[in-house]
Write a structure and sequence with these properties.
By secondary structure, the protein is mainly beta. It is built from one helix and nine strands, in the order E-E-E-E-E-H-E-E-E-E. The chain is elongated, with a radius of gyration of 19 Å. The termini are close together.
Length: 104
């Protein structure tokens, strides 16, 4: 059984036991807490659930494993013949979650 969920501004295909790295959930959530994601599609064998009423009851639960950071992104600006150089870096804050249950 797997589900398509909306997590961190994107849609992810998940099944029980998967570990996802998504955008930061919120500042109040700590490691070990449980978060819920809305299901957009459920597939159980050959049965595919796309009905809005049935999906309204479906919940995908995940346990927060911890906060991480994405890869370093370097932003460089340069203007020729003027002596202007600017360098800036960025690391996106992310959250790792482990899918614990898919309740239909």
């Amino acid at each position: 059984m797997y589900a398509i969920v909306r997590a961190g501004g994107r849609q992810e295909k998940v099944s029980v036991g998967d570990v996802l790295t998504i955008d930061k959930v919120s500042a109040e959530v700590a490691a070990g807490d449980t978060v819920e994601f809305p299901a957009l599609l459920l597939v159980d064998g050959s049965a595919v659930t796309t009905d809005a009423d049935a999906l309204g009851k479906a919940v995908v639960r995940a346990e927060v494993m911890g906060a991480t950071k994405g890869p370093k992104i370097v932003i460089q600006k340069y203007k020729n013949k003027t002596g202007y150089k600017k360098r800036q870096g960025h690391r996106q804050p992310l959250t790792q979650v482990k899918i614990t249950a898919i309740d239909a």
